[in-house]
Specification:
globular, 8-stranded mixed beta sheet, 152 residues, mainly beta
């Protein structure tokens, strides 16, 4: 396989219940430790399979995709990374902290927080505003993920 054609696909899910959003505590940078659940696709996985696997591994929850929210690039990575964010719903499972047995960057907490408190967890005002406004421009390619307020 030609390494010039290798790129990563990262899927994340927005799960909102009772005006609270599910987030995970995992070191992203010196200034940010909380993020949306999700991760990279494994070879041969579909977007849906990867998102369901990541949610189960990171949160203990079973989920289904409701709709595509945003397609973005991750320019700051220095690699070609396609970042895809979905709106999802819970179909089962129990909210649990993962075992982290195979993870070099473990998750330390999993919880629902009020959308109004997202900035207290390192999320941008822009991202919180997108949620409050019902995800305007959903289903579109929006360039770098910083354009939806999810930059590191």
């Amino acid at each position: 396989m030609n390494p010039d054609y290798i790129f990563n696909v990262r899927v994340t899910g927005v799960l909102i219940e009772n005006n609270k959003i599910l987030i995970v505590k995992q070191k992203l940078s010196e200034s940010r430790e909380w993020s949306l659940p999700g991760g990279r696709l494994e070879r041969g996985e579909t977007l849906e399979q990867g998102l369901k696997r990541e949610f189960k591994e990171e949160t203990g929850l079973d989920v289904q995709i409701e709709r595509l929210l945003y397609l973005c690039d991750v320019n700051a990575s220095g690699n070609t990374v396609l970042h895809i964010t979905f709106l999802i719903t819970r179909t089962g499972g129990k909210l649990t902290l993962p075992t982290n047995e195979h993870d070099a960057n473990p998750i330390h907490d999993v919880k629902f927080v009020s959308v109004d408190e997202l900035t207290d967890y390192g999320f941008s005002d822009e991202f919180a505003d997108l949620i409050k406004r019902g995800f305007p421009n959903r289903g579109n390619y929006l360039g770098d993920k910083q354009n939806i307020g999810l930059g590191i």
